[in-house]
Structures are given as structure tokens and as C-alpha cells.
Amino acid sequence: MARTEGRSRIARAAMVGIAGVLAVPVLSGCSVEEVLRFGWPVGVTPEAEAMRNLWTWSSVAALVVGVITWGVMFWAMIFHRKRKDDDGSLPRQTQYNLPVELVFTAIPTVIVAVLFGFTVNVQNYVDKDEATAGGPADVRVDIVGFQWNWEFSYPDETGADGQPVSTLGTSDVIPIMVLPTDRSIEFTQRSPDVIHSFWVPEFLFKRDVFPFPERNDQDNTYVIDNIDTEGAFVGRCAELCGTYHSQMNFEVRALEPALYDRYIQLRKETNPATGQSYNAGEALQELNCGEWCAPEAITTTPFPTDRGQLAAQATG
């Protein structure tokens, strides 16, 4: 009788614990989507969503394995603990039970193989280039990271000076990369000095920018299918690259295709106010399309250091 009552109390305590865990998302105001992200941040590209799905299902698999493992452990502790009426004899030993050992070997192997397969699939999708993306991207952008700033250029778009449309960061200006939504984008990266890393947190991945990638056998080109939503995003260098690494920031403006096309057209024209081609800030100001078109950086500020010589090397 006492043993039955003890088991009943344990069962009730377990049910209360389970109910408490299930109530946490509701009581904390979290949505189902937020709970299923398991802390993974919100991204703005299909690649980011693919990585989020991998993270979610990996976490679910880990929880299932954990619950089964915890259940077996607690079951053994509760129902095979030493009792007052035990005669001191050992329980039946199963350390050399071949079927059990095979199961304990096969199940983890299957779990690891399945996770490996899904991981490789997502990695190949995120790391694709023009050849594996099914054709040329709609937009091409060249990225140069140098100590300690960025240059962004559009090799398929020629400005009034006969050179590709480009934006160069300086000690006075934070560079702004303007991209379209709903179009595929191919990035090609290089560095004239040390290793940098191109990182836009909302893309949920970063890519190292290597010096002389063709000499180092580095794949420096990759494609994203599209950016899902308009927005202004901060970008950073995510690789320690020297004295001013922490200030090596840039910004991204994601505009709807019509606005992006107008932006590129302006970059190809001469600004009557200056007699020179529109720069990124002037073109964004001319668009006058709200916060997404802020002509100056809104999340970071320039820092006082002379980078002119290195900028010349990057563009030379």
C-alpha cells in the first residue's frame, strides 16, 4: 500500500512538472513560432529560414532523445532503488546483453547520419554559387574588405564616368550597400590585405573575405535567393583584422525592385547640384522613400582615422 501511494505521489509530481513546462510559453507571452525558434534570431532570406528549420528540428530531436534518456534514468532510479525489504541480492545483470548493446549502437548511428544528411543539404543550399543556383543571379555585387572599411560595386552597372557603380567607405562616410528585395543576388568578395569577414546579422551567416582568393584556393562567390523584406540593416566585419576592426561597419538598404532600379539609374546619372555622379547617399535622398532610404548611416558612425591610402589600394 505504501509503495502504491509513493508511486502515485511521484506520478502527480511528474504531471505537475510537465504542465509547468508546457505553461511557460503561454505565461511568458511567447508565440508558438518564437518557441519553435529555440532562440534562433529572425532572418530575412530563404537561406536564413533554411538554417532556422535545421536548428528547430535538431533541437526537437535533441529534446526527444533527452526526454527518453531522462525517462529511462528516472524510471531506473524510482523503480529499482534499494528498499527496506531487499534481501541484498543483486538485480539481474544485463551489461553483456547483445541485443540491447546493438540497439544502443544502432539508434545513435542513425540519429547522427540523419542529422548529418540534413546539415549537408542545408549547407549546400546556403553555400551555393551561380553554377549550383540554377543560372545567373539577377544582381551582382563585388565586395572589397580592407583595413578598415568596405567598397561595394555593381560590375554590371556602368556610371557616368564609365566605371562600375560603386560605394567606398571613408573616414567620414559609412558605406551603404543597396540591394533589391525579391531578386537573387550574387556576391563576390576579396581583400587586398588581411582576412576580413562580411556579416549582416539578419542574413544569419557570415563569409570570410580572403586576400587573393584565387591564390588561396578559396571560393569567394555565393548567391542568396532573395531578401524577403524591405529594411535597413547594419553590417560588420566579424574577423579580427587589426586596430580598427571594431569600427569596420557598413549598412544595408533593402528596397523593393522598382525603388532599387531607380536607385541604380540615379547612380548612373550626373547630379546637377554637384556636377558629379550621384553617390549612394545622394541617390537615396533623391528617392525620398522613408526610413528604408535614409541617406546616411543610422546604426553606426564614422571614426577618425585616415584610410585613404588603403582605400586606393583596394580600388587599384
TrEMBL record:
This is cytochrome-c oxidase. It catalyses: 4 Fe(II)-[cytochrome c] + O2 + 8 H(+)(in) = 4 Fe(III)-[cytochrome c] + 2 H2O + 4 H(+)(out). Its main location: membrane. Subunits I and II form the functional core of the enzyme complex. Electrons originating in cytochrome c are transferred via heme a and Cu(A) to the binuclear center formed by heme a3 and Cu(B). It comes from Pseudonocardia saturnea. Belongs to the cytochrome c oxidase subunit 2 family. The keyword Repeat does not apply. The chain crosses the membrane at residues 56-79, 100-120.
